């Protein structure tokens, strides 16, 4: 028999653009499974295994964990869920991620579209620094934030451009109140 493929919506945008916040709302409204690559990496780090130090290094430096690690965490989460439709939040973030995903996952997934939260840098920085007062995230500080922005601009924007060239990007103005952003998101899901 033929296995039906997993459906994937990639959710991209700068640090603090609101990916996680909006994904939670999408889950409630449309019943996708939300997989945040960053959350999966933080959970793996918390196990304290052999990958923990490497992951922590990348997170505090705003650099990107090699795709073999991230992609296998995503793959396992997808398989374990028993579900079919996924929001993959914060991945693919660079050329290495894109190539690795295509090599490992193209046969068993269909990328439906890319939801792109377009947020001005100053809003991103302000949101993350504010969250840093209580989040306990080791990258919600000024120095890591600068690095995260550089990585996003230099490495992630080209991936968004690539998907744009494929006609797959649905763009959201993310510097609006949460409910207004979600109105745009609903439009994006119904178009
Ligand atoms: N907030 C949200 N929406 C708002 C709105 N409309 N108006 C006002 N405030 C709003 O939101 C961030 C903050 O803003 C919150 O306090 C929220 O209340 C408020 P959130 O929804 O968390 O935004 P999000 O885009 O999810 O921000 P996040 O910080 O999670 O984004 P990053 O992309 O930086 O973080 P992620 O967890 O994806 O990755 C962290 C690190 O992990 C990366 O830098 C990298 O080192 C590593 N990583 C990899 O190596 N590979 C991967 O594939 C993924 C991650
Ligand atoms: Mg997030």
Automatic annotation (TrEMBL):
Q: Which residues bind a ribonucleoside 5'-phosphate?
A: 42, 63-65, 90-93, 137, 148
Residues binding ATP are: 16-21, 131, 176
Top-rank lineage group of the source organism? Eukaryota
Q: Which UniProt keywords apply?
A: ATP-binding, Cytoplasm, Kinase, Nucleotide-binding, Nucleus, Pyrimidine biosynthesis, Transferase
Name the enzyme's class. Answer: transferase
Residues of the region (LID) are 130-140
The record's remark on the cofactor is: Binds 1 Mg(2+) ion per monomer.
Entry GO MF terms: ATP binding; nucleoside monophosphate kinase activity
Positions binding CMP in this chain are 97
What Enzyme Commission number(s) appear in the record?
2.7.4.14
Q: Which cofactor does it need?
A: Mg(2+)
Where does it live in the cell? Cytoplasm; Nucleus
Tell whether Transferase is among the UniProt keywords: yes
What reactions does this protein catalyze?
CMP + ATP = CDP + ADP; dCMP + ATP = dCDP + ADP; UMP + ATP = UDP + ADP
Q: Which GO CC annotations does the UniProt entry carry?
A: cytoplasm; nucleus
Please give the chief subcellular localization of this protein: cytoplasm
Q: Which GO terms describe its biological process?
A: 'de novo' pyrimidine nucleobase biosynthetic process; pyrimidine nucleotide biosynthetic process
Q: Does the keyword Transcription regulation apply?
A: no
Q: Return the similarity comment.
A: Belongs to the adenylate kinase family. UMP-CMP kinase subfamily.
Subunit record text: Monomer.
Task: Return the domain comment text from this UniProt entry.
Answer: Consists of three domains, a large central CORE domain and two small peripheral domains, NMPbind and LID, which undergo movements during catalysis. The LID domain closes over the site of phosphoryl transfer upon ATP binding. Assembling and dissambling the active center during each catalytic cycle provides an effective means to prevent ATP hydrolysis.
Q: What does this protein do?
A: Catalyzes the phosphorylation of pyrimidine nucleoside monophosphates at the expense of ATP. Plays an important role in de novo pyrimidine nucleotide biosynthesis. Has preference for UMP and CMP as phosphate acceptors.
Protein name, UniProt field: UMP-CMP kinase
């Amino acid at each position: 028999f033929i296995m039906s493929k997993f459906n994937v919506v990639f959710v991209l945008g700068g640090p603090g653009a609101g990916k996680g916040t909006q994904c939670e709302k999408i889950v409630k409204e449309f019943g996708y499974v939300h997989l945040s690559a960053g959350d999966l990496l933080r959970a793996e780090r918390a196990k304290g295994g052999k990958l923990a130090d490497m992951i922590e290094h990348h997170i505090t430096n705003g650099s990107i964990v090699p795709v073999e690690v991230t992609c296998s965490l995503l793959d396992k989460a997808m398989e374990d869920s028993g579900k079919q439709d996924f929001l993959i939040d914060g991945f693919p973030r660079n050329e290495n991620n894109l190539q690795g995903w295509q090599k490992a996952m193209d046969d068993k997934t269909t990328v439906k579209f890319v939801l792109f939260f377009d947020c001005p840098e100053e809003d991103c920085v302000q949101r993350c620094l504010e969250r840093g007062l209580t989040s306990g995230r080791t990258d919600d500080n000024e120095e890591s934030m600068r690095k995260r922005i550089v990585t996003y601009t230099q490495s992630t924007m080209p991936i968004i451009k690539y998907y744009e060239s494929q006609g797959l990007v649905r763009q959201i103005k993310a510097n609006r109140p949460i409910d207004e952003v979600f109105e745009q998101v609903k439009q994006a899901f119904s178009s």
